Amino acid sequence: MTPEGKIKKEVNKLLAELGDTVYKFMPIPGYGGMGAPCLDYLLCAGGRLFAVEVKKNEKALVTGRQIATMNTIRRAGGKVFVVYDDETVKELGEALHKKTRKSGTVEDISIHITNPAWRVRELLRSDQ
């Protein structure tokens, strides 16, 4: 396993502990340069976007494209983390725990094969 892979394993362990209080998306890296640039993880907790870039250590370089992506996310109100060791993973965990504790319970949309789009839209609108 690569050094970066070991850090991702720790992040995944943290996210597994938080369960479904955090939405996780891991984009496919370097997908032929297609689409918008992204970081290693996009997370949502307590109504806030968290973006995470994982590096193998504190000396690993963050690319110009990654910094531009981080700035865009920050300007849009998201929180950005660069994690590279146990301490930075812990900082991410503390921020996520803080947000999940503050978020209220959200009633799940009942799952029916025939839920019409207008009904799902109404249910989602009640969250806002």
Q: Main traits of this protein?
A:
four-stranded mixed sheet; Trna Endonuclease, Chain: A, domain 1; 4 helices; about 130 residues; globular; alpha+beta
What does this structure look like?
The chain is α+β, with helices and mostly antiparallel strands and 128 residues long. It is built from four helices and four strands; from the N terminus they run αβββαβαα. It has helices spanning 3-18, 64-75, 86-102, 117-125, and strands spanning 22-25, 41-45, 48-54, 79-83. Strands 1-2-3-4 form a four-stranded mixed sheet, sandwiched between helices. Helix 1 packs parallel to helix 3. The longest helix has 17 residues, at 86-102.
Task: Offer a concise description of the structure.
Helix content is 42%, strand content 16%.
